[in-house]
Design goal:
disordered N terminus; 13% strand; 328 residues; Rossmann fold; 4-stranded parallel β-sheet; alpha/beta
Length: 328
Amino acid sequence: MAKIKNETSKRTPTKTARAVAAKSQRAASPSSTKGAKKTPTRRTTSPRTGSNGTRTLHLISDFTGNLANHLVSTVVGQFADVSPKKVVHRFCDSDEKRARALRTVRDPSRDVVLHAVLDPAAKGQIEAHAASAGIPCFDLTGPLTDFLTAALQSTPKNDPDRVHPTDEGYFHRIDAMEFTLQHDDSRRLESIHEADVVLLGISRVSKSPTSSFLGSLGYKAANVSIAPSLGLPKELARCKGRVVALTMQPSKLFEIRQRRFRLNGFATALAERDESLDYLQLRDVSQEVMAAEQLYRKAKIPIVDVTGMTIEEAATHVLEELKLLDRR
């Protein structure tokens, strides 16, 4: 829909209008307002900042801080009118390390403390500093720990090493990640049947990043690139029940391919040679997507449309299709 221009705002003021404006200005001049109280100018603060600037969220953790960071990012993302800075203080597993982190937390108008430490004494150290400095402070793990203590009728160990134990499950996950790296982009098709998950798709539908994420979860993932005109690799016949095809809306796939070519400098090279690729034409991309999806349906391979999805979302849908979710 075409934008409607406000022509009225562009008109030059008439003589009468100028006269009225001048009269109003004289009426409001200091000579006509003697004795009147001067109204102070109000200073407004942007909703993105505190009284002295952008808020800083200090995340204090006795381990990697990844869980606290993810939780806070998820919640903060729901506040569209603020963009606080985040500082993650990791491995604060001693009084000295926590004290060092807390020395950077000084300004009540800027700083906010969110801590994810397990030891009650450590919580007390952080909260005492925040209280003395008048800084907002919140315990990310305490309320949940208290709730589960009552619900499970058990006492927690408060041992950070239990968060990421180097047990059999850990080494299984490392093996899965190595397998995934070795079977990226149609590599080692001869051993693809050993995979827990095989992702299939045309170029740039997020096969590799989704595979990598699955590998980090402990699933042996392989991904296979296809060209519809060449059909499906024969090695997939040994992977029945473990294959999922990824697809994407043509317009979005076209946009991703264009951006990738620009970032790699290929677009400039093609322009200098006055050449183009079917790979980068929207009509050809649409035909490629339709041909690939027809191929998947003929082979009875489940399809996941990853348009607009994060790799976490795509991986979850893949695992749901294969009924593997929550098995690790």
